[in-house]
Amino acid sequence: MSVEAIARKDFRDAVRSRWLLGLAVLFVSITTAFMLIGAQFLSGSEAQTFSTSAVLGFMNGGFTTGLVPLIALVVAHRAVVGERESGSLKLLLSLPHSRVDVVTGKVLGRTAAVGVPLFVGFLLPALVAALGPLQFAPLDYLGYLLLMVVLAAVYVAIAVGCSAITSSGTAAVAAAIGVYFLFTVVLGGINNALPFVLGLGGGPSWLPVTIGELQTLLQVLNPTGAFKIVSREFLAGTLLAPPSVEQQFQQVTEAAAVLMLGVWLVAPPLAGLARFERADL
Amino acid sequence: MYWFRFRVPHTVDTADDRRPTPPWRVGAQNRNTLPNHLTESAGTTGMTAISLSGVTKRYGDIVAVRDLDLRVESGEIYGFLGPNGAGKSTTINMLLDFVRPTTGSVEVLSMDAQREPTAVRRRIGVLPEGYDVYDRLTGRQHLEFAVESKTADADPDVLLDRVGLAGAGGRKAGDYSKGMRQRLVLAMALVGDPDLLILDEPSTGLDPEGAKEMREIVQREADRGAAVFFSSHVLGQVETVCDRVGIMRDGELVAEDSIEGLREAVGTGERLIVTVDAAGEGDLTEVRELDGVESAEVDGDTVTVDCDAEAKTAVVAALGEAGVEVEDFTTEDTSLEDLFLHYAGEESDVTAPTTEVGQ
After folding, report:
1. How far does Cα A47 stand from its chain's mean position?
2. For chain A, which terminal residue's Cβ has fewer other Cβ atoms within 10 angstroms, N or C?
3. Which residues of A touch B149 (CB under 8 A)?
4. Which of these, A249, A179, A192, lies nearest to A219 by C-alpha position?
């Protein structure tokens, strides 16, 4: 009840900012562009119709995993500390809300603030896709949209967690930038560099796992990496498919990736709360 | 002229409510002279609105509040006075669980403020200090949020009307003036008929008319049976409505009494300010010897005399006899303000007690 009230208030507040309209426009244009280009490119290269899922898979690399986390971080990094700095948090906490309610409500409200423009932004392109040469796969399309909202929620959760830990808006900005570079640039870079650092092939003998397994582990631990695994398998229609013997590792990886997304969704707000609960405002 | 001082003991008190009243707690002795509306609502008494016992708050080396004991009975209007930085807001923030005491216990409506903060806030209304409104939400949306949060059944428009914001509910709160924001947050505090109102510097940003309306609302809430605890750094804003006042200085409660008690303790002194053509020290000899005159000072063409109300005519007459031409005179009932300034540790001359000094 209390969480819901805060989430709704937060969404109402965010929805009136021009940010959200801008986001929706951005999503519409980018997705439409991808659909049009994808339709041209794919139908041109091979003489058959392609599913929208193929386009989504194409978008998965740059747009989704690059832009969605960035937007989520931008929208949510001041969620708690911004209210703390301005003083509106005192208004919020003068009402019968606990600090747990505040952090939870913020995660939900800001997720909605990114999720709604995402949905709006993908509806129009879906029409374009359905009427155009692409074969529209509605369930995959909707499922992928929901996955994107999960990705947004994960980064909102990380941002809100950071926002609850710190008492300075500047620190929250720094944390958001740090999180973005760590997960989209640094960890990916380390992953790519691993074979060169540890030596190509099976890797050094002291390493109990192969380099490939180490890379997978690193990817699973990284929320963006985990999302890439989950979304790729989802679009391919093999997410958590019953394993044959040789696919067992693959299935464990997928399950771990799903689990890690859940961990990233819950752990940062909890860590933020641990600090926020004890803080003098 | 300040022949009495209330001291709050520096020892840690136990939370035993039935301990005998220490002689230095003048305020406690005045409880049997509480105004009518308090004794009338005796059916709901027996519950304490606020009870602080042995509360200390340290920020590193700085002690913001030192060993504070304070009780506010249900239905009582308590004025919490002191200059900025005396520890008033820290105390209020501890009542609201914004800030946790280093030692001591804080109870609001007989609930522990740290253990049950949401239960406490469900039954109180708050106008906090240093708040900000949600710029993009309208006034009405703020109230809807408060009503929803308190699961109350209140009409936002009725509340807007009560605080003088009728017609402004559809506007974004970001476009409100400071005074309008203050009214809006007061309206949010009134949602759900709280048992206790905690108002931190409620007159900030209000013009004299607005401050008067605020006092009327406070009075009406008290008549309904709510306790009101409000802070101010200006005595003039609280003396007309408060049953009791407490004065904070450097984190300690240095005085606590009813307004009547304070008035009695200080005497019925008035300050007479006489504008004259010219006067010297010698002209004041006669005046100083008059009955009921406490002190007399001259500064150029102004003679300032602290005296009993009955002595005023004699003072003016004595000045005339000394050959001083009296051009004009005004009186100020500033003894309470003097008392406050004395305890608050300010030496500055405040001539208009009801004027907001500003934050």
Report:
1. 34
2. N
3. 2, 5, 95-97
4. A192
Please give, rounded to a whole number of angstroms, the shortest distance from the CA of B251 to a CA of chain A. 17
| Polymer length in residues for chain B | 359
Distance CA B353, CA A160 (A): 46
For A42-95, write each residue's pLDDT tens digit.
665 554 556 777 778 778 777 788 889 999 999 999 999 999 999 999 999 999
Say which amino acid occupies A53. S
Residue B45 and residue A230: Cα distance in Å, rounded? Answer: 62
Task: Please give the single-letter amino acid code of residue B82.
Answer: G
For residues B146 and A95, the answer to whether their CB atoms sit within 8 Å is yes
- Locate B269 and state its tokens: 């002194």
Strand order in the sheet with B326-332: B293-299, B302-307, B270-276, B326-332
How many helices (H) and strands (E) in chain B? 12, 14
Q: Which amino acid is at A132?
A: G
Residue B73 phi/psi, 5-degree rounding, is -80, 160
Q: Which site among B115, B122, B131, B197 would you substitute to test the A interface, given the most A Cβ atoms closer than 10 Å to its Cβ?
A: B131
Tokens at B61, concatenated: 């080396």
DSSP of chain A, one letter per residue? -HHHHHHHHHHHHHHTSHHHHHHHHHHHHHHHHHHHHHHHHHHHHSSS--BHHHHHHHHIIIIIIIIHHHHHHHHHTTTTHHHHHHSHHHHHHHSS--HHHHHHHHHHHHHHHHHHHHHHHHHHHHHHHHHSSSBP-HHHHHHHHHHHHHHHHHHHHHHHHHHHH-S-HHHHHHHHHHHHIIIIIIHHHHHHHHHHHH-STT--TT-SS-HHHHHHHHHHHSHHHHHHHHHHHHHHT-TTPPPPGGGHHHHHHHHHHHHHHHHHHHHHHHHHHHHHHH---
CA distance A80 to A160: 7
pTM, rounded to two decimals = 0.78
C-alpha Rg value of chain B to the nearest Å: 23
* B301 touches B279 (CB < 8 A): yes
Contacts for B197 with CB less than 8 Å, ≥ 6 apart: B124, B125, B126, B127, B189, B190, B218, B221, B226, B227, B228, B229, B230
User: Number of C-alpha atoms within 13 angstroms, CB side, residue B75?
Assistant: 18
**ipTM for this model:** 0.84
Give the model confidence (pLDDT) of B254-276 as tens digits.
888 887 777 666 655 677 888 88
C-alpha A218, offset from chain centre: 17
Closest CB to A12 among B118, B137, B189: B137
- How many other CB atoms sit within 10 Å of the CB of residue B240? 13
Q: What residues of chain A lie within 8 A of the CB of B122, using their CB?
A: 96
Query: How many CB atoms sit inside 10 A of residue B213's CB?
Result: 17
